[in-house]
Amino acid sequence: MIFTKSVLVLGSDTRSFLSVIRSFGRGGLTVDAAWTAPTSVARRSRYLRKVHDDLPAYSHTDLAWLDDLRHRVACEGYDFVVPTCDPVILPLQAHRAELDTRRFYLLEDRVFQITNDKGRTYELARSEGVPVPDQVLVHTTAQALTAAEQFGYPVILKPLSSFTLLDGDNKQHVRRAVDRHALRRILELMLPKGAVLVQSHFQGIGVGVEVLARGGQILASFQHQRVHEPLRGGGSSYRKSVQLHPELLEATRKLIQALKYTGVAMVEFRFDPACDRFVLIEINGRFWGSLPLAVAARADFPLWLYQMWVEGRDQFPAKTRVGLYCRNLLNDLDWISENLRAQGTIPTSRVIGELWNLVTLRERFDTLVLDDVRPGMEELRLIGRRLVDFSHKRFLSSTVFASLRRVVWWTAIRRLRNAQKLAFVCKGNICRSPFAAAYARCTLPNVEIRSAGYYPLANRASPAEAVAAAALFDVDLSQSRSSVIDENLIQRADVVLVFDYENYSKLRSAYPDSDGKLIFLGLLGGESTFIEDPYGGSLRDFVATYSRIVRAVDRIGHLQRKS
């Protein structure tokens, strides 16, 4: 096989996806991308030659995407195709037998089945003597309550898999229940999607051992430690490189060897330094969110993977930099805001003190780097835009605007009284706007109702919390699928109802002629101007949001009946 030194990278995010692009580009490879969101800042990387936007998205009913992908890879002559996130990996793994595994980076079926299923991962760990949390697999709420009483609260609730092939856009999150009431409420959402692992809570910090392996032999390794633990779960926005812990490395070696693993992996642990104890959390059988730190610390896993997989290399540098910090700036600003609202899970003085890492040149950023500045500059622009939007939002929520609400309210009344075509628009069209549209169709039978979002992915299902909350209002969102807004929807609507300032700002910017049609739905509910996005929140958050939407839509019905 003659190497073209060209690769195709699949994904969108500013962590693993962008890091893989940069690693390959710095290594002298030609890098293209596909299955990439139009809004991804990674598209601005100087190391990216082109993006195949015309490549069909995955469909479980039409395999045209698979034929087109194989044809594109063959025509372009790519040496290597690397999927970087679960929604992209799942379809390829499902069709692994139909793909050229010399070119496509995919795990062997047995390895993928174990690493993608937490229950099977823990079974493997126990068989190899790797500590795991006390846990029970439950199918009913009664079983979960019994386990929680045995373990003591809080307990951790985990789906066996974070993503499924048929619902690859909606992640099933790990959750924490602090009492019986929270446990019941959370299980109402999780159990309909399958069995749930109930685990005892293990006090400690998040630590990851990152490896490159072939046939179960570790060829390179690196370790990071979380500095900012996410308050709601998920990836850390700030972490540091640390010395490899011998026992954690040995536990990782046992798992990798038992799997006969070939590829990159991040084995995640919960580590309590006070007593030097740890438990396994999961095996990430793909590139991980903290990858930018590893690459900055000279553990260049993406390039090393190419060299091992394509070129057959098996020797890699052992020396990496310890004591280096790396921050995802956009996510960390959200973390700092949440930390302040939570009254300082980490003291504010310590957060401010972390700036010393930047002064002493021990800190890097996921997106902002000197040799590839455009993605970072675009992220800074987004942050600046967010600050401007925040100031506008504060004004619209202020007492000054309150005095103008009556004028705005009467303007909305006049427009809505005779409106025959309404459009509800939010960000993703999976939480607020589909519920508002469905409820409005029942309340306003003589009005044409449509809904959409500006997030550039269609056919996404509503999250479980949305479906459960909507059912309480006799609205069925179980079959709802998202659609992306277009010019036709704006032009056709008499009034476009939005929910928060971001909705308003995005539409006004993308469709300047829409400004005269935009109305905040919250104005009609007799409360604050905005109806915030409940995505990622609890069932209670969704019910509160939907209650406000119901009151506002009922008000529209009342206005039209009076006209």
Write the layout of secondary structure elements.
Blueprint: E1 6-10, H1 16-26, E2 30-34, E3 48-52, H2 64-76, E4 80-83, H3 86-94, H4 109-115, H5 118-127, E5 135-138, H6 141-151, E6 155-159, E7 175-177, H7 180-190, E8 196-200, E9 205-214, E10 217-228, E11 238-242, H8 246-259, E12 263-272, E13 277-284, H9 291-296, H10 301-309, E14 325-327, H11 329-341, H12 348-353, H13 356-359, E15 363-365, H14 373-396, H15 399-417, E16 421-426, H16 432-443, E17 448-453, H17 464-471, H18 487-492, E18 495-498, H19 501-510, E19 518-520, H20 539-562
Parallel strand pairs: 1-2, 1-4, 2-3, 14-15, 16-17, 16-18, 18-19
Antiparallel strand pairs: 5-8, 6-7, 6-8, 9-10, 9-12, 10-11, 11-14, 12-13
Helix pairs in contact: 1-10, 6-7, 16-20, 17-20
CATH architecture of the largest domain: 2-Layer Sandwich
* Level-1 CATH class name of the largest domain: Alpha Beta
Most strands sheet: 7 strands, mixed
Give the tally of β-strands: 19
